[in-house]
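Homework help board

Subject: predicted structure for assignment chain

Our instructor gave us this sequence and asked us to write out the predicted structure in token form, then describe one feature. I got the tokens but I'm not sure how to describe them. Can anyone check?
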Amino acid sequence: MTTAREYYARGLRDHLAPALRALGLTGWRRTFSLPDETHWALLGLVDQPVDGRVRFTFDLSLVRKTDWTAAGFPGLRPDPRAVYGVEAWRARIGEVLPVGEDVWWEVLPGPRWLVALDDSVAAVRHYGLPELIRRVERDRAGTGETYLSPAELEQVNAALLAVAVPRIQRAELADKRLVLTGAWTRADPVARTVLEGVSEGFLSAEDHRFHAVRCLDTLGRELWSFDRPGR
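My token output:
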């Protein structure tokens, strides 16, 4: 009897990878990229064999090629499944789907084993790939001046990690505001409290370039805004 892992391996080789390449992505095995001169726009396959089935999802990642080179990480390109701290944006594909939460597909033995693979390709075609393209165009447009260097951002993120708050993926200046982007949700009071403290620290420096701190989720939606005291 053919196992789920065998079906999955066959599906990845004969169906999923060719379908992703047909969408314009290049790559092999579990890492694919959108050809671009200035950015690594990446799609990474994450899979987990569990109890006779295989579940899988995708990580999306956007890294400026200049940032990748300057950071000196090993390898030709980033792995979208790893976090380096130099990403302009990253998300699980479920975050850009209408459900707005983590989504996994499952391959099970049986006559309908291809359904999950076909559904996942549709999610990439209609949501994942358009969002990657939009993010590349938005980043290339230069929406703001980078505020923290990768090393400085890593120091701040180390403090967030200590209290189990998702890292700041991007810190930039735009319209007299410091804009912080990360995988936070409005329903997380701990993240709000911690980010308010971080924002107060930034504002206490009295940098004339900004008078408020905005916190956005990875889809660019505003979560919280903190003004300098007295404004």
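Reply (TA_rk): Your tokens look well-formed. For the description, you could write something like this. The chain has two domains: 4-140, 145-227. That's the kind of observation they're looking for.
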